[in-house]
Specification:
The protein has 355 residues and is an alpha+beta fold. Helices cover 22% and strands 34% of the residues. A hairpin with a 5-residue loop joins β5 and β6.
Length: 355
């Protein structure tokens, strides 16, 4: 869902909304090319209220999250964040999150909509005697994001944070309109950016102010093209709860030194004595069409993988896609057939990112 408070402002700008993993999000305000340019070269303003938000609170929250997720949460100081996953015992994903330690006993997990409810339910399921609560936020706060080269100075002007060169996923608590506002560093679009979690009553005035001083409202179309160019896979688009993180290109979410957590034995075995089944790679298409997700990839008549996400790249001016290739055929430089064997559509396998 987009922020209800911003609906009229979106409509006045000609916004078109589209389904987004069971919710709705602005796709574009009518100028996708201009929006992409603002994202890469200026300051983009995005209503990201459709993303899932989980608040994990309590004196035992840090220890509980350390035991349940794939990262070393005990080492996470207030103001820091990590990219983590939650797995079942068989190593398959429940979901992935950017986990921010906002206060001493308060964590904010930002997720894609498709895994927000499963993550909340699974985290709650294993709380027994711990002083820990899990709350799936709905409309109490809105989430807007400033993204691009000029985002940091603009955020600093209004909320007094961040410092120069903030660490990845860093966060802070500021104030806006007399109420607490959480600011969190993000790279969701492959560019530097900041999520602003503000009270629903304050979001409209903040949006109008930011748009009035040069931030360009953008939709998911620009964000999606940018993150595909950057080689960033997302839950619900490129992988789901049937995937093991090592196969999905999420190796960086795993801490193999922290000790036990659900699914740890499975991914540790893959890391230590084997290799993933799949590798995440890029495809540069030879034709003009963007292949659909799930389209098979072949070589010598053998299926070797499938397309994940694709788009027409504004930077390369050509169709590109993220793809999962079987480990044996992961090497860049090869040409693969896109679609049924013998279809004639081909692509070059490339390393990520594209641009």
């Amino acid at each position: 869902m987009t922020s209800p408070r911003l609906h009229d402002l979106h409509t006045a700008r000609g916004a078109v909304s589209v389904p987004f993993q069971g919710r709705r999000i602005v796709e574009s305000y009518g100028d996708p090319g201009g929006e992409f340019h603002a994202l890469r070269h200026g300051v983009a303003l995005m209503d990201f209220s459709a993303l899932g938000r989980l608040w994990i609170r309590g004196r035992d929250a840090q220890d509980y999250l350390h035991r349940q997720t794939s990262r070393d949460i005990r080492a996470l100081a207030v103001g820091q964040g990590v990219h983590a996953v939650f797995m079942r015992g068989d190593g398959r994903l429940v979901g992935e999150m950017i986990l921010h330690r906002v206060r001493e006993h308060e964590f904010l997990a930002l997720t894609m909509p498709a895994c927000a409810e499963p993550l909340a339910a699974t985290l709650e399921k294993f709380i027994f005697t711990e002083d820990c609560t899990v709350t799936l936020e709905t409309r109490e706060r809105s989430l807007i994001s400033l993204l691009g080269r000029g985002a940091a100075p603009l955020v600093r002007q209004f909320l007094g944070w961040p410092p120069e060169h903030p660490p990845e996923f860093a966060c802070a608590v500021g104030t806006h309109g007399g109420e607490a506002a959480v600011i969190a560093h993000t790279g969701i679009a492959g560019v530097d950016g900041f999520h602003l979690f503000v009270g629903a009553a304050q979001v409209e005035s903040l949006w109008e102010t930011l748009a009035g001083i040069g931030a360009t409202p953008v939709g998911w179309d620009a964000i999606n093209r940018s993150r595909i160019e950057a080689g960033i896979p997302l839950f619900g688009f490129d992988h789901d709860d049937t995937w093991i993180p090592t196969d999905a290109g999420l190796h960086r979410t795993l801490d193999f030194k922290k000790g036990c957590f659900p699914g740890q034995e499975v991914v540790a075995k893959i890391e230590n004595i084997g290799h993933p089944r799949f590798a995440l790679r890029g495809l540069r298409l030879s034709g003009e069409a963007v292949p659909s997700p799930g389209t098979g990839l072949h070589t010598a008549g053998r299926e070797i993988g499938a397309v994940a996400s694709g788009c027409l790249s504004p930077t390369l001016r050509a169709p590109i896609a993220l793809a999962h290739l079987k480990w044996r055929w992961r090497e860049p430089g090869q040409t693969v057939t896109v679609g049924p064997a013998g279809s004639g559509e081909t692509a070059e396998v490339v390393e990520l990112p594209f641009a």
